[in-house]
Structure prediction request, 292 residues.
Amino acid sequence: MIKPGRTYIVAEIGINHNGQIYIAKQLIAMAKGAGCDAVKFQKRTVEVIYSQEELARPRESPFGSTNGELKRGLELGPAEYKEIGRYCKELGIEWYASPWDEASVDFLMEYDIPYLKIASPCLTDKDLLRRCIQTGKPLLVSTGMCDLQLIRRATEMIAYWGGEIACLYHCVSTYPAQVEELNLKRILTLQQEFPRIPTGYSGHEVGVATTLMAAVLGAVSVERHITLDRAMWGSDQAASLEAPGLTRLVRDIRVWEKARGNGEVRVMDREKPIEAKLRRKYTLTAGLERSR
Prediction:
């Protein structure tokens, strides 16, 4: 769970499991090995999200020759999610998912998860938001493709309907995102505009430095897509971190947490012997004095 003083680091598996539970479990183990706090999936009811025309559209993939075969092939079912829950509990890592429709919300409520994630494309879906709120689960809300007016409207309506936003994530919905698109100072804007809602960062860029910078700017949670291999088949693989990058990101964020301190200006205990050894005089007195 998100706690004060410690960055909640989420490995977004999404659909990078390519419909295979064994890949999903490898990614969960990778996230745990890197020191992440949670993994996240995406859940869709294909026939609800996509029109029949869209599902029938020709599209070559490992699952067949239509877009429908692709979308259905990427979805995990009850047995797979039961195994995800069991495996995450065994490893000691949290998991949850972003539902893209009301039926997927109901599906996820069959499992013991701490949050529901509102994906950026879903933030304008009133019925989906209300169904998520009705579960009583705290919400994690991404803000890609949103201006400040839309974010304000969404947060107001979630509060009006009785929902709780556990974290509001700055997000840029390009895959991969270019560095000049990231606008990390938007984290500061969200902190100022929504002081009662913790602010996080959901990144789709290449590399780890800018996600570390988001933590330094005050993101209480960071989320990055992960993959076994960026060259694997799949639309999100190129915007994902492999194991070495994920491990480095977690390590550097934990170093930052140790290094940031509390801002108090004082002489450190380990400085005092150095002070006694190196300071020749201590004749500077408090206050201002006129030079004589």
Q: What stands out?
A: DSSP finds twelve helices and ten strands in the chain.
